[in-house]
Every structure is written in structure tokens, then in C-alpha cells.
Amino acid sequence: MKKVISLLFSILLFPYALFSQERKPDRKLEKALAAMVADFKGTAGVYVLHVRSGRFAAVNADTIFPTASIVKVPLLAGVFDKIEKGELQWHQPLVYRDSAKYGGSGLMQFFKDSSETELSVLVALMMAYSDNTTSLWNQALAGGGARVNELLAQYGLKDTRVNSRTPGREGNRAVFGWGQTTPREMSTLLLKIRQGEVISKGASEKMYRLMTKGYYDEQAVSEVPPYVQVAAKTGSVNESRSELALVNAPHGDYVFYVGTKNIKDQRWEADNEAVQLIRKISAYLWAYYEPKSGWKPTWDVLKK
């Protein structure tokens, strides 16, 4: 009877065990990643964790990098915190004004003044198209950068912060731009979302769904089979190209972040050195964790 009870207890705890393995360094993988970034003309950092096994690899994983648009993941959490508290509603009506327009990526900057919209549209555009106008609007709706930073601190993130339009962080903004993070911390935040630990289980599930519907899929995502779900967010400015991704692979989820800064190649081309590094690392990780999949990319944006 004791053996039966023990077996049942183990079965009940099995899903939890998938995410609670003791983390141990994967030196083989770490060595391979270190070799990939060794000749990079700039500063690069990588963190990757295979969730089921608890094995991780870290190269400059605690170095602070600019987030660029990856800051939109913390902003997403900030908005859902307000929704959870009843201070915002998912389908809350809003009106777009030209005064909110901000250039760069995104679609809402092209809306007509006084266009009717709603919060769900702002959030979807922010995550799918990395919309800058809606992102700054969402930051304000979330209570501002200071409130989002308080939330990040609650989840144990000490270096991941919103800098832009955040009182007291002007110096950080001058160095890192809109936001800052480390490969280890941003990977941790996405993993917490995957595990249902950010805001609430329901909020985490909705945030995760949003992160699987990105338009920008020609970097890390392009090196994973199209039939495998990936939650991802890219971030790009002249001096930095980075990507965050969590792959729902057949043999277990793995999460990774490739951060770069001070890059020499600042061209906005598909063969930019930092972008190529992100693709190379993503392709290597897929082959490393799924060696028998037999899948190789069949469409190369560099040839188009």
C-alpha cells in the first residue's frame, strides 16, 4: 500500500517536477556557445535553460544589455497587473489621438486621430508588431515605468528595468535606452510566465499566447520548425540586436536570450552580424536538444 501511495504521489507531482529540477551547468553547451560569441565584433551574452532537465549554459549571462523592444514584455506584465486588479479591462474602449504618435515599428501611428480602439488592440499590436505608439500608451496605462519596475522587483529581477519616461532613471536611459536587462533575468521572466507565475495563472496564459503570435520571425524563430510553438520577442536599435525565446520543443521546453551591444555592424540588413549570431545560436540549440528531428530551415531570408 505504501508503494502504491508513493507512486500516486509521484505521478501527481510529475508536472511540477518538470519545472523544479535542480539547475546544473551544461559545460559542453556552454563551451560551444562561448566559441560562437568569441569573435563577435561587439559584446554578446547568452543564457539558455532546458527546463525539464534543469541544465543551463551561461556566457556573459549577468551582463546588462539594452532591451530595446524586449522591454515590452515587462510592460505586458504591467498591463495585466492592472487588469487583474480591476483597474483596467481587456476590452476597455479607448480613443487614439495624434499626440500619442511615436515613430519606428508598429501600425497605430498610422491610425486617424480620434479613431476608436480598445486595450486588447493596444496589447496585441505591442506584442505582435512591436508597436511603439501602443507600447508607450501601455506603459502609461500600467502606471508608468516606476510601477512596472516595482513589479519586476517583486519577481526577484534586480537589473531588469524600464528606463524611458521613468523618473530617476535618466542616467540608465542614456546608457541602455528604453530598458535594460540581463540574459538570465529576462529568460527567467519569460519562464515564470510560461509556468503561470506572473500576476496569475490566467494572466500568464494570456500573456504567453500573445507572445506566440509575433510578426518578426526571421531571427531565432526562423531556426525552429514552423509546427513547433515559440514564444518570442525581438529588440533592435542601431547598437544592439537581441532576442528572447521559449521553445515548446518535443523533448522539453527550453528558454534562451541572446543579447548584444556595442555592435560594430549596425546595418539594417538581414545579414547583420548580430542577427546572424542570433540565428546561429537558435539553430544550434534546436539541433542540440532535438538531434533526431531531421528538420532544417527550407527558406532563407538572406537569399531573397
Automatic annotation (TrEMBL):
Transmembrane segments annotated in the record for this chain: none
InterPro entries according to UniProt: Beta-lactam/transpept-like, Beta-lactam_cat, Beta-lactam_class-A
Domain (Beta-lactamase class A catalytic): residue spans on this chain: 45-260
Swiss-Prot/TrEMBL keywords: Hydrolase
Gene3D superfamilies named in the record: DD-peptidase/beta-lactamase superfamily
One GO MF term attached to the UniProt entry: hydrolase activity
Keyword field contains Hydrolase: yes
Reactions catalysed according to its record: a beta-lactam + H2O = a substituted beta-amino acid
Superkingdom, natural source: Bacteria
Secretion signal span: none
Pfam families linked to this entry: Beta-lactamase2
SUPFAM superfamilies xref list: beta-lactamase/transpeptidase-like (SSF56601)
PANTHER family xref list: BETA-LACTAMASE, SLR0121 PROTEIN
Protein name, UniProt field: Serine hydrolase
Native source organism of the sequence: Chitinophaga chungangae
